[in-house]
């Protein structure tokens, strides 16, 4: 396939010393080639510019990136999806969920939640699916549900946000409590009074981490 040329190009730019440092930063969950983000974007750009011209998203390319051992390939897939966000349809939601469930870690999941958020913003009937995700057994899926409105600003549906967060109160999972605080902190930039009220209503159930994050601007 044409994208083998991209992978071959990447593999000639590896740096073993940097790869070890990058893997250590990610708690050694994934191997890296050792290509830092600015250089990676330079290498991927000509390929993604051509790929973006396709009328539909090339999910075969995304999958080819996702099964690669080195993490940079997943970053390229996510950069590609960000470039083609407006082509994402409701039918793509299960595909994004599948990506989130495989090779899961905060940096890939947090990229996916913005993609999910764009789909749901354009298709509000999918809000019910986010409620379902908010009680999923997989905490990464719950994290997406908590944060999918992160970039919504004044389009945030506060009642929906509250329900989803309440569904996750009492968790001991760091990435859930961090997500709760993060979502509240971002919404406080738009509606600080609502966030203050939320913190008051649910103070006894919120983790200290969530309160600390949420209170940054209020």
Keywords summarizing the entry:
single chain; 218 residues; mainly alpha; globular
Q: Gist?
A:
By secondary structure, the chain is mostly helical. It contains 13 helices and no strands.
Order of helices and strands: HHHHHHHHHHHHH
> What would the average pLDDT be, to the nearest integer?
97
Count of DSSP E strands? 0
* End-to-end distance: 52 Å
Shape: globular
Low-confidence stretches: none
What helical percentage do the residues reach?
A: 55-70%
Report the sheet-strand fraction: under 5%
Largest β-sheet summary? none
- What is the count of DSSP helices, taking H or I runs of 4+ residues? 13
Q: Class by helix and strand content?
A: mainly alpha
**Radius of gyration, CA atoms, in whole angstroms:** 19 Å
Blueprint of the fold:
Blueprint: H1 3-11, H2 16-25, H3 37-52, H4 59-66, H5 71-83, H6 93-101, H7 106-122, H8 127-133, H9 139-147, H10 158-166, H11 174-188, H12 192-201, H13 208-214
Helix pairs in contact: 1-3, 3-5, 4-5, 5-7, 6-7, 7-9, 9-11, 11-12, 11-13
């Amino acid at each position: 396939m044409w994208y083998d040329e991209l992978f071959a190009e990447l593999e000639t730019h590896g740096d073993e010393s940097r790869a070890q440092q990058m893997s250590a930063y990610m708690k050694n969950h994934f191997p890296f080639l050792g290509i830092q983000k600015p250089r990676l974007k330079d290498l991927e750009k000509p390929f993604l510019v051509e790929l973006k011209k396709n009328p539909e998203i090339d999910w075969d390319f995304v999958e080819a990136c996702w099964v690669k051992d080195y993490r940079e390939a997943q970053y390229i897939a996510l950069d590609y999806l960000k470039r083609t966000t407006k082509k994402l349809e409701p039918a793509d939601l299960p595909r994004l969920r599948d990506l989130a469930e495989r090779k899961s870690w905060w940096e890939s999941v947090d990229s996916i939640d913005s993609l999910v958020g764009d789909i749901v913003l354009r298709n509000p009937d999918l809000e019910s699916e986010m409620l379902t995700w908010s009680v999923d057994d997989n905490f990464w899926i719950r994290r997406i549900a908590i944060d999918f409105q992160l970039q919504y600003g004044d389009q945030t549906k506060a009642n929906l946000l509250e329900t989803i967060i309440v569904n996750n109160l009492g968790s001991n999972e760091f990435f859930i409590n961090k997500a709760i605080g993060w979502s509240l902190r971002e919404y406080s930039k738009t509606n600080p009074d609502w966030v203050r009220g939320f913190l008051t209503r649910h103070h006894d159930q919120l983790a200290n981490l969530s309160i600390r994050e949420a209170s940054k601007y209020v």
